[in-house]
Amino acid sequence: MAxxxxxxxxxxxxRLFYEExxxxxxxxxxxxESGVGRASFYRHFPSKDDVVVxxxxxxxxxxxxxxxxxxxxxxxxxxxxxxxxxxxxxERFSAAEFRGCAxxxxxxxxxxxxxxxHHVAAEHKEKVIAVLDxxxxxxxxxxxxxxxxxxxxxGDGAIVTAVREGTPEAAVRAGAVxxxxxxxxxxxPVRT
Amino acid sequence: MAxxxxxxxxxxxxRLFYEExxxxxxxxxxxxESGVGRASFYRHFPSKDDVVVxxxxxxxxxxxxxxxxxxxxxxxxxxxxxxxxxxxxxERFSAAEFRGCAxxxxxxxxxxxxxxxHHVAAEHKEKVIAVLDxxxxxxxxxxxxxxxxxxxxxGDGAIVTAVREGTPEAAVRAGAVxxxxxxxxxxxPVRT
DNA sequence: TCTCGATGGTACCGATCAGTTCCGTCTTGT
DNA sequence: ACAAGACGGAACTGATCGGTACCATCGAGA
Lengths: 192, 192
Description:
Oligomer: homodimer
Largest sheet of chain A: none
Strand content of chain A: under 5%
């Protein structure tokens, strides 16, 4: 039976890719840190690129599950529930190993927008937007879809700002903007 | 007398780094595309890292000069003049070669926040924030400094969103948020 | 015309890259 | 007890990395 070689491989790759970047991490590093043999690596993955894609898929699932949990645990009212995203980001930014969003980083590092990794990263963001859109719809916001995209844009802006500043402050700043945005949307009269 | 070898080197490096990423571009590529000899390269720069820093410094100057021009040419009222940033971004996002912000990309690619390149990139953003702060101050906004940082955060969010979506739409979306933000700030009563 | 500094071209260095191959070992189901 | 498959280790490939050393050439100032 298969042992946990593939799992260790993906775990080490995910950590190293996030901490140091995809291009910066060679196969050798992944092998030594996971304790997996070179041959076993290529038994499980055709190439390094496939590991990248697989890592991103895993991270997408983990990240959205985490976000769902933060939303479920939030004490905010339905109208303010989308702000739970920024509450969550504030936590993430405080982590010592925080180095931005793995998906943004991947899209930046992988210049080619047609690459599989870029696609997986872009799809992740769309799924997050869908979550925000659902929250906004349930809270009765009009024009919820563009509003969801604006909130997501704010979240991404907070992430890259936090990377630059090295402090969690950007989450609060973006959250304040989001709050203004939600209140302005709430008091907006019905159109058409 | 010195010819223009150094200038050609920097020009080619700037273009290649932006289009394909810093790590993805080897010295060889820069040499062949600039037509500069290998020895001449190392006569002008101690290492590749120094070229990266020099390219970022140049780009910082060019970018801020461009922004100043867009602000000067803007027909917006003083209260809305900070929105000229988003007008300008909309133009940039439409360019075929657009691949995000070179400074964000550098910070993402260069994982080490203590590296010289990371510092130059971070300083660039602070300078842009200073420009926004000046516009807000001149327009009479209270709490202009945090407001400037919120607008910059929106700008960065628009940039990474535009990279992901491949369309200039994000600039409009972020501009709309900025407009809401400015109006909310303008009608805010004096504190203390 | 001569000279000197800047230049472009090339061969080379050790290190590392992704990927292939072979082999000995260890585990697991029968 | 045995066979099959998953495994780790290591040697090896060709390509590319950043960086060094050497050499022939060109162009401007004396």
